[in-house]
User: Which sequence fits this backbone?
RNA sequence: GCCCACAUAGCUCAGUCGGUAGAGCACACCCUUGGUAAGGGUGAGGUCACGGGUUCAAGUCCCGUUGUGGGCUCCA
């Protein structure tokens, strides 16, 4: 999995620091709880963690104390010493540590490393010691704890985690820490966390009145308020138009379908745990759709298809319902009912290459139009269990790879990470805080064409099976909106701002003029409101700015006199008075350029 | 689903040792008509998530349920 990056990270000093701090933390915890059973503690993105089996639950005060003790240990200038040992020696050393013994068994048998990941070769067994603490570990570590800056790490949280990630196993206590080379880096990281909190879409969703979730309706079900819905409508309209211009045909399909459909599609076999219980309609079972594919397939199958009419590209904003376990729901990014900007492409084998390339190109175009610029692709290839012809898999995978390379996207290959029905590209987006979000996906499907017996009549008059590609670009409207909110911190580009202009009359006598300006701007297609409250101008500015409204137009005696407006921007910039016509030109330019 | 924490006015929160509920913002009304990030006053607004229990007495202690948050696992 994602080998390229992982290996690079493993070679860095930061990786060694984090890995070493995990050991130091384990020492501090074991000192605090001599009966503690310790398990594994790897470096991760931004830091490290270690999982413990402890006699009681940790409190925030415990964390402080552990952190304090860690500083002392780090400052003790202890050397990290590696030693290769036999399995027997290792068992002796860790005789009171059942989790370690389990790991040693795995190492001895080969096939698994100390984190339980599959391994090609049988590894040597090594231990690392610093100060009084010995851990089963293959390293690498710093030479000496003096290489660790005692003021560049911090323990962040305690959370439950299953032994080896399996929910059938015991729940352990995981302590997360973050660690850096310098204090500045630590502070920068902590700032980023704060900033992420400030732009949390759940918080902004409330403050900007964009959406809500109601207990009465149910968890994971989103209510789009007028302002949020307006953004969605704008995004949908833009994207729908682009689809129609790019050779897609728009379709609509129902939200439920007969059990038989889902049996044929196989969803009742391999996807049932994500589907809701059926409803009874005149003695027949119907299911809410977890995917749109079977419906688009029915449209394809509604008559005989000629090779001449391929490719067929059916697009729909398809609302699907999937059962997600209560613990995984999260704001807009993980919900139970959501709308995908879905499409299915049915094409001839000789069209695959171009269709993939087009789909990727189109995806990048749409995402860039939304103000997202930083992408990374993940190519997932054939897993061990798969359906279809390996030759088709290879052809499809190569088409995906060439498309990525043709677009000069950075990418990683997830060998064997594809679904059983086909290889795929996932496109992840890095937002303004450099956080990665998965949005687009382009997947081949070698399963459904077979199951539904899809055909087209080839040039020679014989039926052939088409290739089928499933793709979503924004992913889901809910998740995309969540990402959009966080990326822009709620300050959407002008073309997507629910309210683009707030007119701020200074005194009541300017109200008529303010309304007149509003009318003129509306006639130009701008979304305008007048703040006619009996508040001071300062308060109105503050409120408009907090609502992230792109343009504030202050109008008072001078503006009325000169048929002008005084412009203020939401970033605090103050271009000042200008003729109304000049403002209109400026706004229209910003909108056209998607600023 | 599992581990931990949390749930008080529309929002953000306070509420000590168990003694019967508070602030700011928002809202309504009144005064104020102010030139680039909060003018002043008055008022209305709460089954303290829900259901049990302990107690003379529960927002506060205990149990359960629901929801939310941080994780685990999974994913658009």
Assistant:
């Amino acid at each position: 999995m994602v080998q390229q990056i992982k290996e690079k990270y493993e070679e860095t000093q930061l990786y060694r620091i984090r890995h070493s701090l995990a050991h130091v933390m384990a020492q501090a915890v074991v000192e605090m709880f001599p009966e503690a059973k310790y398990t594994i503690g790897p470096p991760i993105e931004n830091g490290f963690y270690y999982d413990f089996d402890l006699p009681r639950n940790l409190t925030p005060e415990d964390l402080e104390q552990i952190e304090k003790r860690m500083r002392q240990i780090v400052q003790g200038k202890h050397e990290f010493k590696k030693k290769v040992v036999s399995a027997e020696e290792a068992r002796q050393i860790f005789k009171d540590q059942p989790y370690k013994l389990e790991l040693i068994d795995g190492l001895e048998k080969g096939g698994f490393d100390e984190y339980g990941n599959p391994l090609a070769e049988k590894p040597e067994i090594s231990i690392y010691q610093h100060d009084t603490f010995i851990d089963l570990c293959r390293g690498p570590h710093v030479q000496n704890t003096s290489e660790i800056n005692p003021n560049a790490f911090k323990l962040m949280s305690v959370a439950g985690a299953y032994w080896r990630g399996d929910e059938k196993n015991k729940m352990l206590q995981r302590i997360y820490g973050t660690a850096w080379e310098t204090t500045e880096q630590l502070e920068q990281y902590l700032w980023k966390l704060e900033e992420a909190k400030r732009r949390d879409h759940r918080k902004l969703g409330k403050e900007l009145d964009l959406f809500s979730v109601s207990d009465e309706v149910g968890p994971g079900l989103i209510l789009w308020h007028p302002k949020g819905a307006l953004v969605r409508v704008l995004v949908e309209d833009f994207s729908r138009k682009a689809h129609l211009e790019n050779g897609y045909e728009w379709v609509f399909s129902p939200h439920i379908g007969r059990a038989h459909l889902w049996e044929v599609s196989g969803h009742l076999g391999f996807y049932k745990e994500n589907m809701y219980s059926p409803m009874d309609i005149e003695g027949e079972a119907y299911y809410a759709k977890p995917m749109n594919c079977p419906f688009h397939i029915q449209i394809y199958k509604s008559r005989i298809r000629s090779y001449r009419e391929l490719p067929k590209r059916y697009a729909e904003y398809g609302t699907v319902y999937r059962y997600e376990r209560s613990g995984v729901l999260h704001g807009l990014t993980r919900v139970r009912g959501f709308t995908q900007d879905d499409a299915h492409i049915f094409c001839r084998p000789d069209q695959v290459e171009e269709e993939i390339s087009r789909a990727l190109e189109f995806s990048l175009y749409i995402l860039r139009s939304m103000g997202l610029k930083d992408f990374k692709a993940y190519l997932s290839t054939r897993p061990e269990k798969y359906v279809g012809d390996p030759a088709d898999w290879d052809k499809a995978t190569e088409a995906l790879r060439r498309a990525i390379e043709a677009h000069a996207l950075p990418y990683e290959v997830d060998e064997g990470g594809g679904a059983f029905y086909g290889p795929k590209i996932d496109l992840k987006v890095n937002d303004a805080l450099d956080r990665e979000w998965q949005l687009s996906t382009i997947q081949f499907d070698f399963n459904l064409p077979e199951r539904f017996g899809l055909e087209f009549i080839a040039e020679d008059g014989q039926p052939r099976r088409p290739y089928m590609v499933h793709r979503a670009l924004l992913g889901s409207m809910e998740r995309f909106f969540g990402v959009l909110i966080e990326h822009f911190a709620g300050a959407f580009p002008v073309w997507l701002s629910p309210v683009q202009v707030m007119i701020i009359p200074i005194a009541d006598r300017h109200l008529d003029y303010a309304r007149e300006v509003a009318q003129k701007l509306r006639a130009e297609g701008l979304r305008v409101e007048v703040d006619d409250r009996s508040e001071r101008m300062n308060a109105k500015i503050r409120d408009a700015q907090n609502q992230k409204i792109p343009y504030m137009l202050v109008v008072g005696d001078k503006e009325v006199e000169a048929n002008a407006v005084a412009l203020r921007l939401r970033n605090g910039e103050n271009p000042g008075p200008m003729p109304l016509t000049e403002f209109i030109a400026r706004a229209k330019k910003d909108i056209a350029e998607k600023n």
Remarks:
- The longest helix of chain A spans residues 13-32.
- DSSP finds 19 helices and 28 strands in chain A.
- Residues 1-6 of chain A have pLDDT under 50 and may be disordered.
